[in-house]
Design a protein that fits this description.
Layout lengths: L1 E3 L11 H9 L2 E4 L2 H10 L9 E3 L6 H12 L4 E4 L12 H9 L5 E3 L4 H9 L6 E5 L5 H11 L5 E6 L4 H12 L4 E6 L7 E6 H7 L9 E5 L6 H17 L2 H12 L3 H13 L1
Parallel strand pairs: 1-4, 1-5, 2-3, 2-4, 6-7
Antiparallel strand pairs: 7-10, 8-9, 8-10
Helix pairs in contact: 6-7, 7-8, 9-10, 9-11, 10-11
This protein binds S-adenosylmethionine.
């Protein structure tokens, strides 16, 4: 069974291997059958006599049973969600679990994913990130959700509808603190692609007068360490630098404080200069 990633905007972002898999599969399965047929048409991949079977969140067990039966018979099955990578805020998880439970192989034809694309252009630390998907839509549930994410030492990645992006930015500023650096990526790989950077307080204000259109990913930098911890960090770094190279000292302290090595190395450089 192949899970095939498809473009998130620019049709030419499909991979050659994904096209090969689509060309060769006995059974084509899609979240949105029209989108997949259109994509295949654009790239000249003939459907031939094959049908595209619809499979989405609300498909019943009958479709799943049909796909598993085909796999058991040795047929090749390719599944694509509407855009990007299947399973990433898209259907595919139940199917994947069922295929694994049958002991059948799963392969990926990897490709575009909005979360990774946004992380790449964000300029935020990429050493550790947490994909949080779509936040809950009610304010109280969203606040509880964000409270859980507040201490996480990783870049946070959210998907959000353009209608709710302003209220999400306001809630992020309120729950995580307005000073955190953040980035809003809109319409990536498309004609009106736009990346807006700033602290959460400024972004919440900037988006209060905008009605953005299209698709959006919001990324938030991790919290800077608390001042008390900053003191402890400085002390540990100073001590480590007495008997080690700057690189080893930074690595040791980064490990101890759960911080990115690069960040601690910058601190060490600063200390040395001072
Ligand atoms: N499976 C997809 C992936 O791999 O990214 C995500 C599907 S999810 C239903 C759709 C959400 O992904 C959008 O609401 C938006 O948050 C994000 N997204 C998808 N395409 C995007 C794009 N071109 N630019 C910005 N965000 C995008």
């Amino acid at each position: 069974m192949h899970f095939v990633s498809t473009p998130i905007g620019a049709a030419r972002d499909i991979t050659l291997r994904a096209l090969d898999v689509l060309a060769g599969a006995d059974l084509l399965v899609a979240e949105d059958t029209r989108t997949l047929r259109h994509l295949m048409e654009i790239h000249g991949v003939a459907l031939g006599t094959r049908q595209v079977i619809s499979y989405h969140e609300h498909s019943g067990d009958a479709v799943l049973a049909r796909l598993l039966a085909a796999l058991r018979e040795g047929k090749s099955v390719a599944y694509a969600s509407e855009a990007g990578t299947p399973l990433i805020s898209d259907p595919g998880f139940v199917l994947a679990r069922a295929v694994v439970a049958e002991g059948l192989p799963i392969l990926a034809a990897p490709g575009p994913c909005a979360a990774i694309c946004a992380l790449t252009v964000s300029g935020l630390p990429s050493d550790r990130f947490l994909f949080a998907g779509f936040p809950p839509t009610t304010r109280s549930a969203r606040h509880a959700f964000l409270a859980e994410l507040k201490p996480v030492q990783a870049t946070l990645i959210f998907y959000e509808s353009p209608k709710r992006v302003h209220s999400l930015l306001e809630d992020l500023a309120e729950c995580l603190g307005g000073a955190r650096e953040a980035v809003v990526c809109r319409e990536m790989t498309k004609k009106f692609e736009e990346t807006t950077r700033g602290c959460l307080a400024d972004l919440a204000e900037a988006f209060s007068t905008r009605s953005p259109k299209g698709e959006i990913v919001v990324l938030v930098d991790r919290a800077k360490e608390a001042p008390a911890e900053a003191g402890a960090l400085e002390a540990a770094l100073g001590k480590a630098m007495e008997g080690m190279t700057m690189k080893d000292a930074s690595a040791l302290v980064a490990e101890a404080f759960g911080l990115p090595r690069r960040e601690v190395y910058q601190l060490a450089l600063k200390r040395q200069r001072e």
